[in-house]
Design brief:
Elements (H helix, E strand, L loop, with lengths): L10 H14 L6 E4 L7 H8 L5 E4 L11 H11 L2 E2 L1
Parallel strand pairs: 1-2, 2-3
Helix pairs in contact: 1-2, 2-3
Length: 85
């Protein structure tokens, strides 16, 4: 098993991360742990990052800034067609 930490925080970063994962690590779906601030383009980020075979573990960021709830993240993931917990 491999654990990769990445701070992709915008659609362009997510696209670059996905490309690197696809080039370096072959295999089936991936598991992502994701929490986000409310002012981020999470829809764009996840659209560039996820494939239907992936799974997202939705979390809430512990911060004073407004954060996106796990249910909001889950809804976006479901729209893309990936799994979410």
């Amino acid at each position: 098993h491999k654990l990769i930490l990445d701070g992709a925080h915008n659609p362009a970063g997510a696209k670059a991360l996905r490309k690197a994962l696809d080039e370096k690590f072959f295999g089936k779906g991936r598991i992502f742990v994701l929490g986000a601030f409310a002012n981020k383009d999470v829809q764009g980020l996840l659209t560039n990052l996820l494939r239907r075979e992936d799974m997202v573990i939705a979390t809430e960021v512990a911060a004073k800034r407004q954060v996106m709830s796990t249910s909001e993240i889950a809804e976006i993931v479901k729209q893309i067609g990936a799994s979410v917990v």
